């Protein structure tokens, strides 16, 4: 029985279906599953946190390869299926909750006997960005985050500051991690097939951020407001936000030798760091 047949069997057995409200699409491509396990370098020293496991198609090989797998699933129907399917695995734990409300720091601390903690998941696309930002902003003791996301989102996350696909989140990802797209996933790799292609992205979490920012809150606010009006210049976007007085912004750009007509997407991570640090010390 291949993965697609097994998936259809489980759906029929439990009279289950993909719940659009939870953004469910069930992965049925065994090559993609194997690729995720390989690229995430899952081994017996790992604590794996899987978010939104659904039917458990990725959970099964994770349990075979990892030291322990903690699944966080919101859908009660899927919780029932997962409990039944994996109840005999001693390294399986299931939490029925919204991942945005779960204390992941405590989970990792409570399982400190494992050498490293990693997130491996096929994320619900409607809530991809909040989940990834929670994982990073909570400063969890994670080695890596390997997740399936919409391809367009993956390209934005993995781009380098100053690249063609950048958004505000690109800078956040590059501040905390080294990102890389590791697998392209066509839409027919799922039941039901989504309307978009997907990709698996791996984020290797840095022990220290790439730049030395004096005030992280200010730094990320500057980036956020810079991209709210992406077609405008950095000067216009930030001065319109009310975050920074226009004369101070002109002063910092001139001081750093940055063209006053520059747009946010043309700046590097180091540029935003220097702008933020200059404003922090001159406000």
How would you summarize this macromolecular structure in one to three sentences?
With about 280 residues, this protein is an alpha/beta fold. The chain is about 40% helix and about 20% strand. The chain contains 12 helices and 9 strands.
Tally the structural domains: 2
- In helices, the fraction of residues equals 40-55%
- Give the helices and strands as they follow along the chain: HEHEHEHEHEHEHHEEEHHHH
Number of helical regions: 12
CATH class of the largest domain: Alpha Beta
Structural class: alpha/beta
- In round numbers, the mean pLDDT is 94
Number of strands: 9
CATH architecture of the largest domain: 3-Layer(aba) Sandwich
Overall 3D form: elongated
Tell me the Rg in angstroms. Answer: 21 Å
First-to-last CA distance:
65 Å
Q: Give me the side-by-side strand order of the main sheet.
A: 4-3-2-5-6-9-7
Low-confidence stretches: none
Q: What is the third-level CATH name, the topology of the largest domain?
A: Rossmann fold
Report the sheet-strand fraction.
15-25%
According to CATH, the homologous superfamily of the largest domain is: Vaccinia Virus protein VP39
Largest sheet entry: 7 strands, mixed
């Amino acid at each position: 029985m291949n993965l697609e047949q097994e998936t259809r069997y489980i759906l029929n057995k439990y009279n289950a279906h993909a719940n659009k409200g939870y953004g469910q699409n069930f992965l049925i491509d065994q090559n993609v599953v194997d690729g995720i396990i390989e690229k995430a370098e899952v081994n017996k020293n790992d604590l794996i946190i899987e978010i939104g496991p659904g039917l458990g198609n990725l959970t099964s090989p994770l349990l075979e390869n990892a030291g322990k797998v903690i699944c966080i699933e919101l859908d009660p129907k899927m919780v029932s299926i997962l409990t039944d399917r994996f109840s005999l695995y001693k390294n399986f734990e299931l939490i029925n909750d919204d991942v945005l409300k779960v204390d992941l720091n405590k989970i990792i601390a409570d399982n400190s006997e494992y050498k490293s903690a990693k997130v491996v998941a096929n994320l619900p696309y409607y809530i991809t960005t909040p989940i990834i930002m929670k994982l990073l902003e909570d400063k969890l003791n994670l080695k890596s985050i390997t997740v399936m996301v919409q391809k367009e989102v993956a390209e934005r996350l993995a781009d380098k500051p100053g690249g063609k696909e950048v958004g505000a989140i690109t800078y956040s990802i590059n501040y905390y991690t080294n990102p890389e797209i590791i697998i392209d996933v066509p839409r027919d790799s799922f039941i039901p097939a989504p309307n978009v292609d997907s990709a698996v992205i791996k984020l290797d979490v840095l022990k220290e951020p790439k730049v030395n920012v004096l005030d992280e809150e200010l730094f990320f606010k500057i980036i956020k407001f810079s991209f709210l009006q992406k077609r405008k210049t950095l000067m216009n976007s930030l001065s319109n936000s009310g975050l920074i007085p226009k004369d101070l912004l002109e002063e910092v750009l001139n001081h750093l030798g940055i063209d006053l007509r520059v747009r946010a997407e043309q700046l590097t991570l180091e540029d935003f760091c220097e702008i933020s640090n200059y404003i922090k010390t001159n406000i």
